[in-house]
Amino acid sequence: MAPIDRSELKGLVQTVTGLIDPKLVGPTLMHEHLFIDLNPPRFRAEAVEDEEITLCNCWKINYGQVISRLNYRLDDKQVAIAEVADMKAAGGSTLVELTVGGLQPDPAGLVDIARATGVNIVMGCGHYVDEYQDEANRSRSVDDFAAEMIGQITQGAWGTDVRAGIIGEIGCQAPWTDLEKNVMRGALIAQRETGAAINVHPGRHPDQPQEVMDFIRAAGHPTERVIISHIDRTIFDADRILRLAQTGCVLEFDLFGWETSFYGPQPSVDMQNDAQRIQWLRLLLDRGHRDQVVISQDICVKTRLCSYGGHGYQHIFANVVPLMRRHDFTQGEIDAILVDTPTRMLTFA
User: Cα–Cα distance between 327 and 314 in angstroms, integer?
Assistant: First the structure.
């Protein structure tokens, strides 16, 4: 695709196959991965003979009894095509793919999936957490990071002409590192210059999402086009969630389908289930934050795909939406979460 400037982006949504009218967005998953290597880079070069993932061991893998590096790598295009086709059949229209720098993004592969399925795929840009970044990033300036992200939106990302349509997920940790803060500063500049929204991967401390939003506000940056991911593995009390919502950001509950309490990245956390997640959605809607909530599944391991015994990208449309209706969510509320707010965030301002 040819390079583009901001004037051509404004009011439109940028998918991996080109610009579309926001009216075509429809029901949307706001945080997924189709291709990713979530193994820390220091481990990737090691030769490891993992056992094949089967229905006989997928539970043990999910519960941390068996460590599988294969599980942390999504790299099968045909599997991805089949899984995204299932999502479309269940009622999904658009998928936001947030595999960024450090996680082995595959823009050309995303184009192939979009063309094979007819699903709108919006690609992210920027960098993941400190541990996954190239060592060379430590000497880069904020302006250099900003220019990179602007280029990924207006020209093409990671050596291709495939253009990103959202910034992020921008990796943060607790404690937040200097490198990650510089990437975030660059993302704020890129957001201002392009009109794209920003998706933030917050650190796992319950106060870190608020730290990010306080940082953004202190920089004089508007908050309404910032999405904070992973709320459902980070914050577990109403005071913190409502205080975060008061900043004006969008709160993303993106681990739908994760129905076991065990959370491998931080075993001290008792993960919520889908019924608890929709209770948090109800709280936010009842407190006036209807337009600040999006949902997704953040599939980034094989065992969460239908092909390996999991729920797949179809889960929210096939199972969660009916659950929301049983809990008296109106169609207008469901549309706000799955269509209206995603469309607003994906439309360049």
Answer: 20
